[in-house]
């Protein structure tokens, strides 16, 4: 087979035309499509990388928030436990104080009951002693004892405190002042005159005297001048002994 130069050249030309046509109509569009797809893939890869980065950041943020929340929960739990302990301590202290107050009230109430029982016992004992003393004194009350008590009162007048002495003098200085003398037994004239003389020795301002009988005095006398009550009798001594107040 002989190689025909013309045919060879024609084949070469045909091949070159085929190459140009393929390059024009097929290769460049394919390259453009490939390049476009590569660009799309790069964009998708970049987008995926961005999403992965954001996911990593979100994951880190989430884990950070979880750690912070765990720390906050731990702190809140600690604060709550502290507050509960403080509240328990306060309530315990209040309860102890209330119990102490109740115990104190109960103790005070019991002490008052004991004191009341003691007071009642003392009052009963004093009343019993008073009745016994009154019965005894009523048996020894005589006019002679009354005269002795009157002399004792007259002796005590000279020893009165200065303030009381001045007050009695002022009372006797009034125009209508009367020295009222009550005795358990009627005083003989010499006894009443003796009393007036001795009384004026201590209180010269005494003007009028009034004598009366009060059998409740048992023995002795009681002298009233103005607001003052001077007594030396078994009744008032017995009342003083019983813790009472002069009566009649």
Task: Write a compact overview of the structure shown.
The protein has 248 residues and is an alpha+beta fold. The protein contains 5 helices and 4 strands. The longest helix is centred in the N-terminal third of the chain and has 136 residues, at 5-140.
Task: Describe the fold and architecture.
This protein is 74% helix and 10% strand. The longest helix is centred in the N-terminal third of the chain and has 136 residues, at 5-140. Mean pLDDT is 77; it is low at 244-248. Strand 1 (178-183), helix 4 and strand 2 form a beta-alpha-beta unit. The chain has helices spanning 5-140, 143-157, 162-172, 189-202, 234-241; strands at residues 178-183, 208-213, 220-225, 228-233. The radius of gyration is 65 Å and the shape is rod-shaped. It is an alpha+beta fold and 248 residues long.
Shape: rod-shaped
Number of helices: 5
Compute the average pLDDT: 77
Q: Which strand order spans the largest sheet, edge to edge or round the barrel?
A: 2-1-3-4
Distance between the termini: 184 Å
Helix percentage: over 70%
Rg calc = 65 Å
Query: Biggest sheet: strands, sense, closure?
Result: 4 strands, mixed
Q: Indicate the proportion of strand residues.
A: 5-15%
Which residue ranges are poorly predicted, with pLDDT under 50 across at least 5 consecutive positions?
244-248
Order of helices and strands: HHHEHEEEH
How many beta-strand elements?
4
**Structure classification:** alpha+beta
